Amino acid sequence: xxxxxxxxxxxxxxxxxxxxxxxxxxxxxxxxxxxxxxxxxxxxxxxxxxxxxxxxxxxxxxxxxxxxxxxxxxxxxxxxxxxxxxxxxxxxxxxxxxxxxxxxxxxxxxxxxxxxxxxxxxxxxxxxxxxxxxxxxxxxxxxxxxxxxxxxxxxxxxxxxxxxxxxxxxxxxxxxxxxxxxxxxxxxxxxxxxxxxx
Length: 198
Known about the structure:
Shape: elongated
Distance between the termini: 56 Å
Strand order of the largest sheet: 1-2
Radius of gyration: 18 Å
Protein name: Transcriptional regulator BetI
Pfam family, one: TetR_C_6
DNA-binding region: 30-49
InterPro entries: BetI_C (IPR039538), Homeodomain-like_sf (IPR009057), HTH-type_TetR-like_transc_reg (IPR050109), HTH_TetR (IPR001647), Tet_transcr_reg_TetR-rel_C_sf (IPR036271)
Domain HTH tetR-type: 7-67
Structural class: mainly alpha
Largest sheet: 2 strands, antiparallel
């Protein structure tokens, strides 16, 4: 493999780790399987990451960005604040439908981290990343639309993560698109009801 920058190597290893986890499960995502997936030597992993924990944290941040970046992009679209709320929720949901394996990995990763000594901080960091991402999204929506919220942003972020996390897990197990869509609409209605127009 030609010489590549450390940041690019890290990104390639994270994406390879995600592919291995989707295909084989988190427990089978060894450093050897990840570097093999990336087409790199084992030394590349140790040169790029201090530990497997650091890699897992990067996996979480990358998966979160896959959905968050799409939602933030939708906030810049035309339309009123209600349209933007629904568009952001829909962008997340379309990612779930298109990438169910990636979302399964997030739940598996949480449980894996909690069951392995020394990795519990990975699960804690996972949900901190979700809340940070949701907070940024909620704040960006308020700024782009000139509105405020009837509850503190950290509370709304936790509520939103709880609803979307539960809805995603339910859909992954149930596979009922129509019921999931109806629940997503209800979540949108409730989120919109928390908006105060200035």
